[in-house]
Every structure is written in structure tokens, then in C-alpha cells.
């Protein structure tokens, strides 16, 4: 058929819905449904291989030539086809352009989606009556595989119901989850990273309520009760799933991962084949967990995050307005999809010894002509002459381990008729400004970022090739060093605790919960041999919190 073929002048709505499983056919199928929006006429449904653009194109050509099942319209090309989802529109746009058929995408086509709901029920009933509907997992579970298969079938059914009757791609739920409808749709359409879309549909089915007091999609399906027994058990478990933020502590690729709840310390063995292959030790995960007989299954609830970002993610969730009870996130999880738009930091936030974010800055001062800067600086308390034309401003260490000679606050050097001070935070730059503001012959000029040398390597990059594994004895020494350092930190001042040590704060009823959380979210240390686990449990026991 060419663009010279007859034109109907109509606009079609087209949707692809998952087909029910068919006995002795392992290839996933989907069904193309087409509705003429002008006349309301329906075209013959076409079953095709899932995701196959060639079969989809052939199915449409057949419909162009055959015309609708009923009605006065004859065969011919429509003016436009409005697809319910982006994938088929993207796959066929070029071919339909050749036929001068406009291509649009609109998830909200009430007449079309109503037809999907009717067709889904009728088709499943028809296949069951013919004896070709695959119901192998419906009754007796015979092991892990049966539970997993039933869970997969349940997910497919819930997505089909949601798409047919509830409009998950409407702006309201997208805004309620992602905070931005357009960016939410972009995430869902991203074929390279399906995680945001998976998390969103899980939230939509199990947490979203169209209005106050309304049932969720999952609750409606459960109330209806028209599911195989095994799927009903799983559906009930998923409705009551617990949402946690955890750290991967161990795994068996292709079988399970052990996830430690970073707030409660409880370790859950999750039987997720895909997750166990992609996760790594120390990775932070936000998931919903639910029992399946003797196993524990999981649903993605947020982005994966590096160990360093776990505490940041928890604080972001709380800032949105949610709370954790006994380590479990309570409520409807609205707006937690914003973590995909503004992900928790994926690199460590470096801090100086005062707990301030590190930022390399230069503070510039003008010097009066012929000013003897050496004699001027030596009159300022805490500034010492390094003997090489530079000076250092030191603060007392107050017993801080590793800083017995004092904590360096700034370095000074003279360049021409200026005195330059190098500091590593904004608060310290202001302290330097105040320190010299009343010194004769010195006038403050500016505070500006310290320029990096051209082609400077990243401060986080290893020079040359990636480091290889270190010898076992060196790894053991490193583990002991980090263990001792972590235990020693219990008696060091912590800015986030108002200057108290962990030990002092642990004795305060107001600060005990903060101390426990800070230690439980303490990140592991990365090494060429893999992460070194921090002695979090030992630290908590030492403080009487375990």
C-alpha cells in the first residue's frame, strides 16, 4: 500500500496491551487494538510478538486494507494515528511518514482505554474456554520457581489493569510521584534505564489514591478477588510490603542479596535474581520487601545509591515530609520519585576537620609599599613562619587524633604586592578576613575560588592505570587501621552533634537516636580489593546502643 491509497480522513487510536499467557508458547505476545475516534468503530484485534516492529507494521497494513469490523467506513489510510504509548510511535514514525499519516502520542484516550478493559476480560475468558490459557502457576506452588512465576504474572496483570482503567500517565499521579509530569514521562520512556518507570508503576499500583478514601489499584484487584490463589496471596503480601533503605552486605549472584536496613540494623535475605546479579557490596537500595512462602521478594522503590549517599537520601526523604518507624518508611511515599530527578550525591561530600564542606578558596590582601610582611604576620596569634617565604595559621588540636601539632586553617604567601591566603572552606575564608582586618599595612581585596592548574587530574582519580589488588597482608593492615580509626572517632568532637563526641552524645536522651543513625549510615571504605566494612555494630555496642 502506498500514500496514493484511499484516505478515510479519520483519526485512529491505537494501543498495545499484553496478551494473556498461552500454553506451549514461551514467546511473549501483545495485542494491537485500534479504534476510529470519529465513528467509534473498532478494528480487528491483532496478536503480535511483543516489541517486534515488523509484525506491528504488518498488522497495521492489514487493518488499512481490511477496514473496521462494523460501520460504514471502508478500507483506507487514516489521517493520523494516536498511539497510547511512545514505543510503537517511535518504531513506526518513519514508515507512517512515508504514507503521510501523522503520528501522535496521547495516554489519555477514554474510549480506547475503555475498549482495552473490555477486550482484556473477554480475551482471557475466550482463551480459557478454548483450553489454551496457560494456568500452570494458578494453584499448587512447587517451589521458588512457581512463586516467582506467579509474581511475574501478577505484575503483568496489575500493569494491564492500571493502563486500561486508571490512567497512570496522567499528569496528576506523575506530579505526585516525580514532582514534575514532563520529566516523569521522560523517565518512564527511557529505554536505557527502566528503574524509574518500574518504581513509578509500583508506587502507582500500590500507593496512589485518585482521591481521599479511594482504593488503590492493588486494593481494587484484591477486593475483586478474580485471581488465581497463589497470585492473591502475593498481592496481599505486596499491599502490606515494607519500604526500607538498606545497604548490600553480601550476595550470591543469580540467587539472593543480604540487605541491611541502615536504620534498624536488621538484615533481610532478598531472593531477586536480577538484583543479585547487578548489585555490589556496599550499594544503597530503596526497596519494598514482602514474603513469598519461605522467601522474601522485593519491589524497586527508588534509585540505587553509593554508600556515601545513603544518609543524604534518608534526609531528603524526611525533608519531603515522610517518616520512618522502626526503620520502615510509612505513608504513601508521595514525591519520593524526586530522588530520581535530584539523585542523592553520587560522590563523597568532602569536609574539613571542622565539618565544613570543602571548597578551595584564595583570600587576597593588598600590601602597602615596602611593607615587611614577615614582621607583620609574626605579630598575629597562631601564625607561624615556615621559613621558606610562606606562613601557616594553626589552631589547637584539642586532642583530635592525628593533629597533635595543631589543625591547619590557612597557608599564606606573598606574590608581588599582594598577600594570598589559601583555605579549604567558606567559613575559614571569612575567619582569615577577620583575622587580618585590623592589621596595619594589610587591606582586604577579595575571596575567590582557587584556580586549578591546566590539565589537572581529578583529585579522585588514580594516576595511570587502575590499581591492582593489594597483597593480603597489606589489606589486613589497612582493615586494622580503619577499624582502629573508626573506634577512636567515638571520642572525637563531632560538629553535627554540637561539638560533643559520639560517646557523650550517646548518653543524652535527645541525641541517642542521632548517634545511632549516624553510625548505622557510616559508609564502608573503598579499596582495590573491594570495600572494607566499617565496625558499625562494634561501635554501637561500645556506646551501649546495640
Mean pLDDT: 82
The shape, in one word, is elongated
Strand content: 15-25%
Question: How many DSSP helices?
Answer: 18
Low-confidence regions: 136-141, 456-466
What number of domains?
A: 4
Task: Please identify the structural class as seen in this structure.
Answer: alpha+beta
- Strand order, largest beta sheet: 14-15-16-17-13-18
Task: Give the fraction of residues assigned to helices.
Answer: 25-40%
Q: Determine Rg (CA atoms, Å).
A: 32 Å
Task: For the record, give the distance between the C-alpha atoms at the N and C termini, rounded to a whole number.
Answer: 74 Å
How many strands in all? 18
The main β sheet shows up as: 6 strands, antiparallel
Protein model, in words:
With about 550 residues, the protein is of the alpha+beta class. The chain folds into four domains: about 10-125, Nucleotidyltransferase, domain 5, CATH 3.30.420; about 145-350, no CATH class; about 360-450, TATA-Binding Protein; about 470-545, no CATH class. It has helices at about 55-65, 85-100, 110-130, 145-165, 170-180, 180-190, 195-205, 215-225, 230-240, 275-280, 310-320, 340, 375, 425-435, 470-490, 500-505, 510-520, 535-540, and strands at about 10-20, 30-35, 45-50, 80-85, 100-105, 240-250, 255-260, 265-270, 285-290, 295-300, 325, 330, 360-365, 385, 390-395, 405-415, 420-425, 440-450. The strands form four sheets. The protein has a six-stranded antiparallel β-sheet with strand order 14-15-16-17-13-18. The protein has a five-stranded mixed β-sheet with strand order 3-2-1-4-5, with helices on both faces. A five-stranded antiparallel β-sheet has the order 8-7-6-9-10. Strand 14 and strand 15 form a beta hairpin. Helix 3 packs antiparallel against helix 4 (about 145-165) and helix 4 (about 145-165) crosses helix 9. The longest helix has 22 residues, at about 145-165. The N and C termini lie far apart (about 75 Å). Mean pLDDT is about 80; it is low at about 135-140 and about 455-465. It holds the Pfam family DUF6930. It comes from Saltatorellus ferox. This is DUF6930 domain-containing protein.
Amino acid at each position: 500500500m502506498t500514500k496514493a491509497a484511499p484516505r478515510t480522513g479519520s483519526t485512529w487510536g491505537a494501543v498495545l496491551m499484553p496478551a494473556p499467557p498461552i500454553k506451549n508458547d514461551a514467546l511473549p505476545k501483545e495485542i494491537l487494538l485500534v479504534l476510529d475516534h470519529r465513528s467509534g468503530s473498532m478494528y480487528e484485534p491483532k496478536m503480535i510478538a511483543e516489541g517486534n516492529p515488523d509484525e506491528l507494521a504488518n498488522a497495521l497494513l492489514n487493518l488499512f486494507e481490511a477496514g473496521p469490523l462494523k460501520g460504514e467506513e471502508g478500507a483506507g489510510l487514516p489521517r493520523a494515528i494516536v498511539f497510547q504509548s511512545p514505543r510503537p510511535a517511535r518504531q513506526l514514525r518513519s514508515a507512517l511518514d512515508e504514507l503521510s499519516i501523522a503520528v501522535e502520542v496521547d495516554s489519555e484516550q477514554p474510549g480506547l482505554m475503555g475498549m482495552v478493559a473490555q477486550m482484556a476480560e473477554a480475551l482471557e475468558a475466550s482463551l480459557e474456554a478454548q483450553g489454551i490459557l496457560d494456568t500452570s502457576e494458578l494453584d499448587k506452588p512447587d517451589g521458588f520457581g512457581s512463586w516467582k512465576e506467579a509474581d511475574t504474572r501478577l505484575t503483568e496483570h496489575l500493569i494491564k489493569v492500571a493502563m486500561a482503567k486508571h490512567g497512570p500517565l496522567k499528569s496528576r499521579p506523575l506530579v505526585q510521584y516525580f514532582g514534575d509530569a514532563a520529566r516523569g514521562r521522560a523517565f518512564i520512556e527511557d529505554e536505557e534505564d527502566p528503574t524509574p518507570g518500574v518504581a513509578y508503576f509500583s508506587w502507582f499500583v500500590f500507593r496512589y489514591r485518585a482521591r481521599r478514601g479511594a482504593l488503590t489499584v492493588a486494593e481494587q484487584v484484591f477486593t475483586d478477588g478474580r485471581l488465581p490463589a497463589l497470585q492473591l496471596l502475593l498481592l496481599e503480601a505486596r499491599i502490606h510490603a515494607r519500604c526500607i533503605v538498606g545497604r548490600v552486605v553480601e550476595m550470591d549472584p543469580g540467587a539472593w542479596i543480604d540487605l541491611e536496613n541502615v536504620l534498624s540494623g536488621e538484615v533481610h535475605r532478598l531472593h531477586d535474581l536480577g538484583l543479585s546479579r547487578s548489585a555490589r557490596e556496599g550499594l544503597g537500595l530503596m526497596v519494598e520487601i514482602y514474603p513469598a512462602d519461605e522467601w522474601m521478594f522485593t519491589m524497586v522503590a527508588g534509585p540505587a545509591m553509593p554508600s556515601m549517599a545513603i544518609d543524604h537520601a534518608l534526609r531528603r526523604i524526611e525533608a519531603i515530609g515522610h517518616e520512618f518507624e522502626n526503620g520502615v518508611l510509612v505513608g504513601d511515599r508521595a514525591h519520593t520519585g524526586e530522588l530520581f530527578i535530584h539523585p542523592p550525591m553520587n560522590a563523597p561530600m568532602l569536609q574539613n576537620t571542622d565539618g565544613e564542606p570543602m571548597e578551595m578558596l584564595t583570600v587576597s590582601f593588598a600590601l602597602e609599599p615596602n611593607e615587611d610582611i614577615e614582621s607583620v604576620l609574626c605579630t598575629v596569634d597562631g601564625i607561624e613562619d615556615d621559613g621558606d617565604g610562606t606562613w601557616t595559621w594553626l589552631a589547637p588540636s584539642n586532642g583530635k587524633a592525628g593533629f597533635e601539632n595543631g589543625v591547619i586553617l590557612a597557608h599564606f604567601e606573598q606574590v608581588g604586592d599582594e598577600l594570598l591566603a589559601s583555605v579549604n572552606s567558606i567559613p575559614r575564608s571569612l575567619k582569615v578576613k577577620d583575622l587580618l582586618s585590623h592589621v596595619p599595612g594589610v587591606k582586604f581585596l577579595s575571596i575567590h575560588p582557587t584556580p586549578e592548574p591546566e590539565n589537572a587530574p581529578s583529585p579522585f582519580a588514580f594516576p595511570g592505570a587502575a590499581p591492582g589488588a593489594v597483597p593480603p597482608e597489606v589489606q589486613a593492615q589497612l582493615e586494622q587501621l580503619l577499624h582502629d580509626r573508626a573506634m577512636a572517632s567515638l571520642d572525637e568532637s563531632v560538629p553535627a552533634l554540637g561539638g560533643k563526641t559520639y560517646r557523650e552524645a550517646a548518653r543524652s536522651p535527645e541525641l541517642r537516636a542521632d548517634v545511632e543513625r549516624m553510625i548505622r549510615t557510616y559508609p564502608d571504605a573503598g579499596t582495590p580489593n573491594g570495600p572494607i566494612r566499617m565496625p558499625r555494630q562494634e561501635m554501637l555496642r561500645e556506646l551501649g546502643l546495640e
